[in-house]
Amino acid sequence: MRGGSAMPLNAERGSSTRGAVRAAAGDQPKKKTDFKRVLPEVWKLVRPRRFLLLFGLLLVFIKSAAGLVLPYVTKFLLDGVFAPHKPQLLLPLVLVVFVATTIQASSSYALTQLLSKAAQRMITELREQVQQHIGRLPVSFYDANRTGVLVSRIMTDVEGIRNLVGTGLIEFVGGIITAIVAFGILVKASPRMTVVLFAVLLVFVFILQKAFKTIRPIFRERGKINAEVTGRLTESLGGVRVVKGYHAEQREAEIFSGGVHRLLNNVISSLTATSLLSLSATAILGIVGGLVMFFGGQEVLGARLTPGGYFQYTAVLAFMIAPIFQVVNVGTQLTEAMAGLDRTMEVLSEREEFGDPNRKIQIPPLAGQVEFRDVRFAYDEDKPVLHGISFAAAPGTVTALVGSSGSGKSTIISLICGFHNATSGEILVDGYDLAAVDLASYRSQLGVVLQESFLFDGSIRDNIVFSLPSASEEAFLHACRIARVDEFAERFDEGYATIVGERGVKLSGGQRQRLSIARALLANPRLLILDEATSSLDSESEAMIQHGLNTLMQGRTTFVIAHRLSTIRKADQILVVEGGQIVERGTHDSLYALGGRYYDLYTRQHGIEENLFLAPGEGDVEVVS
């Protein structure tokens, strides 16, 4: 910063922050599924398809009613055909059963086609919704959640919607309706016997209710464990070169083994619980069968029930009991589904960074004036990172940030990018308070070149036009020439259509960085961030891309973080950051002449005896004590 007077920048540390970062999903405490939160959200998903579900219920009712025909005609077969010996009635009864069976099979087929496909479409829509929402969440959310956990939230947790919209729930509801109809038939046939059996079944329903309260947390925990295991596996596979480089295959295998065994223990716990439910169901079935035999026998012997009526009773009883036993399977599926959807709703309840009502200003094309005014920041309330940062960067100038690791350089860059909001103070861009600026309009004028260039597993062209998909062929080739991508891309057989591999593994570090520079050039940003863009390269690669960087910086307000201090000697101003404060500022020559912290950093890197530059000039220096 030229022509500035010295001023104190030390101040008291900020005592509060605008919000702590949420804990990672894998570290959150166990809790039960919040049905009060999930059910309204489920209704939002189901509501557009409510008429389809009602039609599904109608089909289930038709299917169930047709299924009741066979047990219902048993009484007529025994008492109306066999006992009075009327063979002429046999064929009509058989035809009735045949028609009922055809109706039952047809309605079952239609039900599966309609609801199963509808459930799959809803799963797809929910995945799209969750992915889009996660993509709009702030960087702090990604800092607190592992990639694999988020992948599990998007791909696995939403699967449960199948059991809520598909045939499982509808058939279960239809089964309940059938049970009610069957209960009416049973009461009419033998009130005394039905009341006794119903009391026994109520006991079983009470047991089911208690059991599902135990099972719900198990399924929720399973989702969390599965996300953790998937997350670690994703990281391990993505970092396979690091794993193999340190011969850590066995260590990773042990970590994965521990995770899958935790998952196994969880599954075993759920299987134990469901097995006990099955045991209870079987026991109840035996008790019911014995009671029917005892009381039914008394009814028949007392001439209050015919043999045909007895067989009809037992056949219809199965239709009343079946839905109750179906609870064991469907209830388990629904519990798992609700737990997964609860985790999904946790993500969807996160506030989007673009949804901040305070960010309403649509920023016009930038000139590039950036100013920090007494900015303080803390990721956690009790751990301040920046303490009263103040500086100004004029349009078209280059501002370099130097300092030891952890000094706060990257945090300053994150604030410029709008990844976080300052705890206190102001960040102004062309006079606009960045905290009130619409991020979409701002970031569309921002370009970033990182130390480790991230490339997608696509072609060279795909990775470059990622910043501006609508770019013309002329603009694309121009960016490639300036960044010297053409020097290696055109030597490949497939040219710019060459696939770079996951994270660009098929390219060298210098080639990946040149793609990153071309991508930024194509975007034509007004503000440019170079975060240690050349520190990981060898001297030859650095020399090859330095021309591209110099071209990229022309006419743009640029912020540079560089460990290799020789790359920032021509910066308009250098800010030396230590302990979250700017301790020195000025040009390279003036700071070197000062013999302070910058001098120590530079000479430590290049050697005190090195003399690769002219004598220090008379540039202004600002020292902060």
Polypeptide structure, described:
The protein has 625 residues and is α/β, with parallel strands linked by helices. It has a domain at 35-349: ABC transporter type 1, transmembrane domain (ABC transporter transmembrane region fold, Up-down Bundle), CATH 1.20.1560. The protein contains 21 helices and eleven strands. The strands form two sheets. It has a seven-stranded mixed β-sheet with strand order 6-7-8-3-9-10-11, sandwiched between helices. Strands 2-1-4-5 form a four-stranded antiparallel β-sheet, covered by helices on one side. Helix 4 runs antiparallel to helix 6 (147-155), helix 8 runs antiparallel to helix 9 (191-238) and helix 9 packs antiparallel against helix 11.
